[in-house]
Amino acid sequence: MEYVVLACRVLVGFVFVASAASKLLSVASFRSFVTATRDMAVPAQLAPAVAVGVVAGEVAAVVLVVLWPGGVAGLVVAGVLLVGFTAGIAGVLLRGKDQSCNCFGSTTAPIGPRHLVRNAALLAVVAAGLLCQTPWESRTHWTGVVAAVVAGLIGAVLVLSTDNLAELFARGSAGTAEQAPVPDGDRTAGVRVNGRG
Fold first, then answer.
1. How far, CA to CA in Å, does 42 sit from each of 1, 35, 83, 159, 161?
2. What is the pTM of this model?
3. Which of 3, 175, 180, 185 places its Cα 20 to 30 Å from the Cα of 106?
4. Each residue of 93-124: b (16+ CB within 10 Å) or e?
């Protein structure tokens, strides 16, 4: 169980480090996030304060995931933030608004159902990290620790690559559709039509 908790802590910590860093990378990045916050139906006058609160929460989640015993407090903070993010994304989708996702910095990728799936997966990781906590300490082996850290990092990279992976699969399926062979009957029909024309 300790290895599961460690993998969850690494995944959540890495994702929230990337999220906070992308917003604090530059003044322009933070302004872009404030705009995205306002577009999620947050009143314009409150958007800067909400944006600051979100970034502060992300930083707090990382610190607590690393320093708090079992990372419990950090996982709870991360869970609360994820519920808020999910509600904001769902609101955008329900309103049918075409808005880009600024979760990990400025991007042109529009918010879509995949972002709800991603957040649901992250919430499942948070839940696993909390449910697998044990009241006793057991002996851990370095190979298990390394495997847990690697698993957490791989999971975090997949989460952070959600938009890129979705775009890659979309291109692949579009290419397959274009290269799909035309049935012989359709080809013959096409030749006849062209002959008549």
1. 40, 10, 16, 25, 27
2. 0.78
3. 175
4. eeeeeebbbbbbbbeebebeebbeebbebbbe
> What number of residues does the chain have?
197
What's the Rg (C-alpha) of the chain? 22
Segment 5-63, tens digit of pLDDT:
999 999 999 999 999 998 888 888 888 888 888 877 788 888 899 989 999 999 999 99
| 55 close to 18: Cβ distance less than 8 angstroms | no
Any idea what the Cα angle at residue 16 is, between residues 79 and 9, rounded to 5°? 65
**Which DSSP string corresponds to 117-146?**
HHHHHHHHHHHHHHHT--SS-----HHHHH
